[in-house]
Specification:
- The chain contains 6 helices and no strands.
- It is globular.
- By secondary structure, the chain is mostly helical.
- The protein is 66% helix and 0% strand.
Length: 137
């Protein structure tokens, strides 16, 4: 029962992304072709909300669902791994037309072919878990 509010937030998030057309393959295609500001506007809004949210969490010293203090560690500056990871993420996003959040939204909307994309994302995550100790961090 304590997870119900998180499930509800997930449903609202899915509805908002669907109504904003952020899960539309066509909108994603437009973005990567630099033909429309639509997705860039959504991304910039998400960054602004994220910045405000993180500052709010830090200043209020909020706790997670288990009562532990939420601690956000500072990231390294100029690390190659962020560039490589971002490039791989962007290429995958451009190739399949969906990042992780919309994969679940599209499945929920009945687009079952997205199940193949989900399988690929899960395999990639599993592969990273297997190889992470051998990768340069």
């Amino acid at each position: 029962m304590k997870y119900l509010k998180y499930l509800l937030v997930g449903f609202v998030f899915g509805i908002v992304l669907t109504k904003a057309e952020a899960v539309s393959w066509y909108r994603i295609y437009e973005m990567f072709q630099f033909q429309s500001f639509h997705m860039y506007g959504i991304i910039m809004t998400a960054i602004a909300v994220g910045l405000i949210g993180v500052q709010f969490m830090k200043r209020r010293q909020l706790k997670d669902i288990d009562g532990n203090l939420i601690v956000i560690q500072d990231k390294e500056k100029g690390s190659v791994r962020y560039w490589v990871g971002g490039l791989l993420f962007g290429l995958g996003w451009a190739m399949v037309g969906a990042c992780p959040g919309p994969i679940f939204i599209l499945l929920g909307a009945g687009f079952m072919s997205v199940g193949l994309i989900l399988i690929g994302a899960l395999l990639g995550t599993f592969l990273y878990g297997v190889l992470k100790d051998k990768l340069p961090h």
